[in-house]
Amino acid sequence: MITDPTRALAWMVGLDDVTFLGLDPGEVTTVHVESVRRAVGCPGCGTLAQVKDRVVVVLVDLPVYGRSTRLAWHKRRMHCPDADCAATSWTEEDDRIAAARQVLTSRAARWATVQVGRHARSVSEVANELGCAWHTVNDTVVAYGEALLDADTERFGAVTALGLDEVLMVRLGTYRRQEFSTQLVDVHRGQLLDVVPGRSSVGPMAWLVEQGPGFRSAIEYGTLDLSGPYRRVFELMTPHATLVADPFHVLRHANTKLDECRRRVQNETLGHRGRKNDPLFRGRRLLTKAKERLDDKGREKLAGLLRAGDPNGDVATVWEAKEAVRELYAHADAELALEWVTQLGRDLQDADYPVEARSLGRTLIRWRRQIAAWHEAHVTNGPTEAVNNLIKRVKRAAFGFMSFRNYRIRSLLYAGKPNWALLSTITPR
């Protein structure tokens, strides 16, 4: 146990060649240190440099016993005595104490990066704990985060199944214009590879070009929702890959068409939106429920509500179409699945069917091969959706991002699985 206060503070500094000078107690504790003086050569000519003056740089350090702490580093400003040397003056640097142009000490900066990046704590919470401004912590996290991601050259290797999906990043302007981002995910590992702005095909295609032909040739499967732009990305950049339409989104599309039909019939028969006593409104939950999960009472109730609120049978027709789509995933035969979805799509084109059923049929025809591919590949976009949930947790901690750079770095630190052991070895430049 260290009983001498001076020795204790010197031990807390943690560097043998850094001298503890003194302590200023107060509301914010300030610890004064300086580096041990050594002979330094001029970087221009090698002549022995001389001390020109000193400058005190105050850095935000980790709290001590719950009190905000500052490290006052008494830095020497050196100059070359050779009048013919082009070098004028420079200030000593020590990345172990603090990186150049950083306001936090190196240990505080790495701690803040772990708290915000790895544990998804809010920047304001960490800033309050350190007793500094929000921008001080955020700029540090972004700088160290970028350095960590650049240094981790082996963060991901060959990707055999790539998933694409979008997330709402922020709403901007008076009219709350929506800005989206696209996440590229290794589906097999559930790892976020990168984030690109927008939800068009431009960003993902540019990213795949940067990865090179070797990376693209390794992709065997591409998972996606029913998105035309993402389908174009895979067809142009990885034409050899098998595209798999996510089953969840296929079924959700069928349920969406069912809901559209229910709301249309509701307005046509009663002239207003659904109210709590209207038959179709009362049955909205039963309609989206799986048929086999309905007990006798539920089936009887649904049939009665449809008789009362669906005079032409449009809702019942689309409900049966939705159930037929669900039956598609009840087996694992790829050839039968392709035949099934093709025939179902054609059957739904009957002119006597409601418009929502015909729209569902056209979608099934357009995506029939991608829908049937699931029965062979058995990969889904579920891991991509899981990564999106992680990003939404980061968004909740940040209460909305205005800068795509901050959004990307924070997302990759939390969901990109970087090698955090490298953080102790990197210094931002």
Please provide a written account of the structure.
The protein has 429 residues and is α/β, with parallel strands linked by helices. Among the domains are: 1-97, no CATH class; 247-377. 46% of the residues lie in helices and 19% in strands. The protein contains 18 helices and ten strands. It has helices at 5-13, 106-118, 123-130, 134-151, 202-211, 213-217, 228-237, 247-270, 279-282, 284-288, 296-309, 314-327, 334-347, 355-366, 368-372, 374-377, 382-398, 404-415; strands spanning 18-24, 29-35, 50-64, 67-79, 89-91, 161-172, 177-186, 191-197, 221-224, 242-245. The strands form two sheets. Strands 1, 2, 3, 4 and 5 form a five-stranded mixed beta sheet that branches. It has a five-stranded mixed beta sheet with strand order 8-7-6-9-10, sandwiched between helices. Strand 6 (161-172) and strand 7 form a beta hairpin. Helix 4 (134-151) crosses helix 18 (404-415).
Summarize this structure briefly.
The protein is an alpha/beta fold. The chain contains 18 helices and 10 strands.
Observed structural traits:
429 residues, alpha/beta, five-stranded mixed beta sheet, 10 strands, 19% strand
